[in-house]
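Minutes, project huddle
Topic: does the predicted pose make sense with BIS(adenosine)-5'-pentaphosphate bound?
PN asked that the exact inputs be recorded in the minutes so nobody has to dig through chat later. Recorded below.
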Amino acid sequence: MRLVLLGPPGAGKGTQAKRLSQHFGVAHISTGDILRVNVRQGSPLGKEAAGYMDRGELVPDALIIRMVEERLHAPDCQKGFLFDGFPRTIPQAEALDALLDAQRQPLDRTVNIVVPDEVLVERATGRRTCPACGAMFHIRFDPPRQAGICDQCGAQLVQRQDDTEETVGNRLRVYHQQTAPLIDYYRRKGLLAEVDGRQTIDAVEETILAALRG
Ligand code: AP5
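Predicted holo structure (tokens), as shared on screen:
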């Protein structure tokens, strides 16, 4: 299974990608997660990306495409993969097509998780993540059993630096200008499935699985 999950910031791409990659036994490739690891480690890529991320802007295409090409060569991608947060621009989508054509491994589907902007701000600003194991929570919609503590490993939960109201507003503007055109790009290729992301987390997963069966 080779999938792309599309959707605005806070739509639930990461939440669903974790579930779906386990369900299908494929690699979960989140460009945002790879970038955040690089920023934490202070790598050259992380140093270059950090400013863009803090402002809620996109990291330049050339850096992202190189990073994804490298990731696709990892052994865990042989059984398939699920992209979460990539592609984000038409040039990224064209580069992905070229990479996959060269490997004769075309995409199976692209799933767009549709959520209106007014819901997204609350989703993103209420998100809390575990720096130790990567588990994700929401203070209102998916709270941990003990406030601020990870259910899975007991570490202290943190808020992402770009999850402030101001930066989320900028990320949404960038999404509408640069990423939303991908919806038509994949529709024209006959690959697009659209899913209502306002449902509960379980219901969104069920709807995606049904769309992929259909
Ligand atoms: P990235 O990490 O990709 O962030 P994003 O796309 O803005 O998406 P989010 O991670 O904010 O949201 P999500 O859709 O994954 O939602 P989630 O499941 O977490 O990118 C960050 C930055 O890195 C970018 O701004 C850019 O600078 C850079 N970058 C990354 N990729 C790039 C690329 N390809 N090109 C250029 N730059 C790139 O859910 C959000 C919250 O809502 C959680 O708390 C969750 O528990 C909750 N929730 C989820 N589903 C539901 C539901 N159904 N009901 C209620 N609550 C829900």
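Observations noted during the meeting:
- The chain has a mean pLDDT of 96.
- The first strand starts at residue 2 and ends at 6.
No decisions taken; revisit at the next huddle.
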